[in-house]
Amino acid sequence: MSSGGRAGKPKEEEQDGMSVHSPCKPPPSSASSLPKEHAQVELELRLLEALEIYPPMKLQGVHRHFVLYGLMEFLRRRFDRHFSSEEVLQLLDRFYNIEMLKTDDDDIELLNHEEEFSLPQSYFVKEEP
Question: What's the pTM?
Fold first, then answer.
C-alpha cells in the first residue's frame, strides 16, 4: 500500500509544480488584448501631452472649437491617422467631466446677441486741405 496515492499521474491542475491558475502564467484571453492595451495607453499618454499645449479649461467658451481642433491635429501628427472630434471628446471624458465643460444657454444667448452699429457721421466727412 505504499504506492497508494502517489503512483498515479500528477493532478491535471498542476504542471511542473505550478497551478494552471498561477499568476506567473497570464490567462489565454489577455495575450491578445496586450497590444490593444498598449496602444490605448500610448494614445492616452499622447492626449495628456497635448493637454499641456491645449488646456481643457479652454474647451469652454469662444476658443473651444480651436482647442478641440488643436487636439485633433496633435494626435493626427503623432499617430498618422485622422481623429474625429467625437473620438477626442471620448478620450477627454476618461480624464475630465466633459459635461462640466459644455456651454450654458446663457453663454449661447450672449454670443448670438446682435447690436446695431454704425460709424459716426464725422467719419464720413472728408476734410479739404
Answer: 0.53
